[in-house]
Amino acid sequence: MLPNDIWFRIKLLFCKDKELYAFCYQLLGFSPRNIDTYRLAFIHRSQSIEVKHGCCINNERLEYLGDAILGAIVADILYKMYPRKREGFLTNTRSKIVKRETLSKIAQKMGLDKVVHPVITSHTHNSYIYGNALEALVGAVYIDQGYLRCKAFVEDRIIKPYININSIARTEINFKSKLLEWGQKYHVPISFDLVETTVDGTNNQLFRSVIKLCGYPVSEATGYTKKESHQIASQKALKRISEDEAFRQQMLTLATAVTIPSTQQQ
């Protein structure tokens, strides 16, 4: 708490949830306008609150919004930071910054584990709870304060203290290898098919590739090399596998029923 922040002290006197308000103030660096929005950001679906007509609320909608806003802010930062880099580099760097593992570690360093209390059972997927809460917090800031204040929060309270963008940009993540490892582990046939070669407006060659799992197209991407198109498409496929449980189970079921010659390539 800042001792000379009289306005904060006055608002705190009339706030119903003083502890949460003080936590948010120190975390954000400004006074929340609607503390209920931030309270919702910290409600995991296992602790959903029932409201009118039997409807339950939790932080999943804010997480969805925050994911999009965070991605846009990071894209904005990278676009200005690397004016000569191509789309593939920018996309890969953004993905490394906003990936769930990174966000979960940052969330715990920020202390979100102190306010998010999920009900943990043997069936609860707990890996990214705090990272998801951080995305929900970004969504809450956007709703409560608008884009510019939200962007400043992301830059000053998330990026600068916890993320070295240049270091992350230099770290190579081989999405194709990760996808192939997943396919080998679960015996899912994977193919990488070059479907089109074109040129851009300045006559640079472009390659469009499609990835198939069990013979079904699941992602595609365009790059200035076949390798780049494979990497971006693999990243999309991995995201779909990790976030869409129904899709993942469908692929695993198909893998046990269908035998397709694998054209896995390194």
Key attributes of the depicted protein:
266 residues, single chain, mainly alpha, three-stranded antiparallel sheet, disordered C terminus
How would you describe this structure to a colleague?
By secondary structure, this protein is mainly alpha-helical. It is 58% helix and 12% strand. It contains 12 helices and 5 strands. A hairpin with a 5-residue loop joins strand 3 (190-199) and strand 4. It is globular, with a radius of gyration of 22 Å. The termini are far apart. Residues 121-125 and 260-266 have low confidence and may be disordered.
User: How many helix segments?
Assistant: 12
Q: Return the average pLDDT rounded to an integer.
A: 85
Oligomer: single chain
Biggest sheet descriptor: 3 strands, antiparallel
**Poorly predicted runs:** 121-125, 260-266
Shape, please?
A: globular
Percent of residues in helical segments? 55-70%
Which structural category do the helix and sheet elements fall into? mainly alpha
Distance between the termini: 54 Å
Major β-sheet strand ordering: 3-4-5
How many strands appear in the DSSP assignment?
5
Bin the strand percentage: 5-15%
Order of helices and strands: HHHEEHHHHHHHEEEHH
Supply Rg.
Answer: 22 Å
Outline:
This protein is mainly α.
SSE diagram, text form:
Layout: H1 6-14, H2 18-28, H3 35-41, E1 49-50, E2 56-57, H4 60-81, H5 87-98, H6 100-110, H7 129-145, H8 147-162, H9 165-170, H10 175-186, E3 190-199, E4 205-213, E5 216-223, H11 226-243, H12 245-257
Antiparallel strand pairs: 1-2, 3-4, 4-5
